[in-house]
Amino acid sequence: MSMPSLRRARRKLQKHAVRLAIWGGFFLIFLIGTFTSFSWRSWRPEGISLLPTVVARINGEDVPRMLYDQAVAQMAQAMRPSVSDWAFIKEGAFDQIVQQVLLRQEAQRRRLWVTRADVNRWVNEQVQLELAVARQRYQRDKAFRDFIRKRFGSLQGYESELRRQWEQQADGVRETLLQQKLRDEIFRTVKVTEEDLRDAYTQFHLRHIFVSFARFLPQGKNPTPQDQEQARQKALEHAQKLRQRLLKGEDFAALARQESDDAATKEKGGDLGELSLDLARARLGDAAAQILPRLKVGEVSEPIQGWSGYHLLKLESKRLNLPPDYEHVRYRCEDKKCGNTWVGEKGARQCPKCKGTKIKVVGTRKAELLAQLRSQRQGEAFQRLLRDLRQQAKVELIDPELRALDAHRHGDRKEARKAYQEALKLALQSPDARRHFLYPEVLYLQLSRLAMDEGKLAEAERFAREALKYSDDSELHLHLGSILMLRAKRDEALKVLLKVANRSLEPFQRQRLASYLEQLGRKDLAEQQRRLAEKERPTSGGVTLPLRLP
Ligand SMILES: [Zn+2]
């Protein structure tokens, strides 16, 4: 293969890698999983499973346990989980499934289709890309050449194996392409004008009066969705009243000092300083960023809904702050040996590098900045779609552990405890629980954490000890040790912690252990642990140990 075409292939591969990275998540993990030795498929259930075969419903669509297990297995594989990681892994895996399902449902709603020909084209492209890299290596690398010959006979054999593996992934490819079509459709609708570009480079000097939802929420209980909606309504009414007072001539800064719920700016009369549109969006929300370019200097906005309340905005002043090369053009030197490209003022006569005079205008900075802004806006549009889909989605959790984790995260401890106990019963009674990543030690640890949140330390200790009956994970000893310290059982705590002192630990675990030992008055042992941590550091990231699954 000639050099230019090789370079082209590599460039294409890089582009492809970026594209994959942008699509993110699930499918990539899905593929990595299939090429490695670890396989959850090889486990056959024995006895009758008590686990629900459907873990959740997303807008009425069943999520089969098999799909969930697969996502969990692949995420776990990338992490080498300890007992304390499983909650995070399961929520993460389920979250990926939710996103994937919602995007597919949205694509279907928009009547987007992926044909067999689309799939074939994509598979072909992948095979050619991988083959180009392999061919190059085949010529240079004897060990690789021997490997290919021994394993596949020839490069052709390798090609057909690649094709076979991709064909097996046809469903995954279809899903990925459907997402891509949805993305393309959303990207197509995003238009940016030169005016948008100027707005993006404008600095807005703003004041605001913030009326938080929290001010109108009932105290001392977890707010229901109705409470939240009511608080939103009341916040809006209050903001409208404040606006009326401003329209009648009250001073904005003075009213901000009296009424704003933003502690950071209240004393400064609501002064937010100068913000770009991007900063305004991050700080005040999408709605504010949309209204800002149309607000006149001196004007007070309608109440604008932000992340956690309503804002009344006053535009004090604005100034255009274009980049210095805004009106510049991009040149290319036509001298074949030079090939220099550069940005400069209009009307240049010669190449600054070779002083040649055959130069060509190949673009403008303004167009480049427009393209940048457009791709930024496209990304935002896609994120907005995802957020909307998630907000409107009806996600029904059926698997008790998923229900427990969700309730725990939302601070609904009563529901969390009930669901953890339910999951625990399944974990102890169903013969296939461990094969489906349902572990009593994980559930006991979660129950122990929950008890700690509630300040029930005796119960936390009891659950931690239960967990240790099922697993000897260092994390569990550290957890129990910390509870014993809180309970002022110092001798017992020390005994428990010393059990893991000589084990190989993750650096952050070692640090934690050291700090516990120090709190227990054992500076000598803490020092010892810190020295160990120094020694261990170089191995992290270097060596990968085999997957440790209970
Ligand atoms: Zn030149």
Set out the fold topology.
Blueprint: H1 3-23, H2 26-34, E1 54-58, E2 61-64, H3 65-79, H4 86-109, H5 116-140, H6 142-152, H7 155-168, H8 170-188, H9 194-200, E3 202-212, H10 225-247, H11 252-259, H12 263-266, E4 271-275, H13 277-284, H14 286-291, E5 304-305, E6 309-320, E7 329-333, E8 341-344, E9 359-364, H15 365-392, E10 395-397, H16 400-409, H17 413-429, H18 440-453, H19 457-470, H20 474-486, H21 490-498, H22 507-519, H23 523-536
Antiparallel strand pairs: 1-2, 1-10, 3-4, 3-6, 5-6, 7-8, 7-9
Helix pairs in contact: 1-5, 2-3, 3-4, 4-8, 5-6, 5-7, 5-8, 6-7, 8-15, 16-17, 17-18, 18-19, 19-20, 20-21, 20-22, 22-23
This protein binds zinc ion.
Residues 333, 335, 338, 340, 351, 353-354, 356 line the site of zinc ion.
What are the low-pLDDT stretches, counting only 5+ consecutive residues below 50?
Answer: 1-6, 15-45, 539-550
Strand order of the largest sheet: 4-3-6-5
Heterogens: zinc ion
Shape: globular
Output the number of helix runs: 23
Record field, number of beta strands? 10
Radius of gyration from the alpha-carbon trace, in angstroms: 30 Å
- State the distance separating the first and last CA atoms: 48 Å
Measured by DSSP, the beta-strand proportion falls in 5-15%
> For the residues shown, what is the average pLDDT?
88
Structural class call reads alpha+beta
Oligomer designation: single chain
Largest sheet: 4 strands, antiparallel
Fraction of residues in helix: 55-70%
Describe the structure concisely.
This protein has 550 residues and is of the alpha+beta class. The protein has helices at 3-23, 26-34, 65-79, 86-109, 116-140, 142-152, 155-168, 170-188, 194-200, 225-247, 252-259, 263-266, 277-284, 286-291, 365-392, 400-409, 413-429, 440-453, 457-470, 474-486, 490-498, 507-519, 523-536, and strands at residues 54-58, 61-64, 202-212, 271-275, 304-305, 309-320, 329-333, 341-344, 359-364, 395-397.
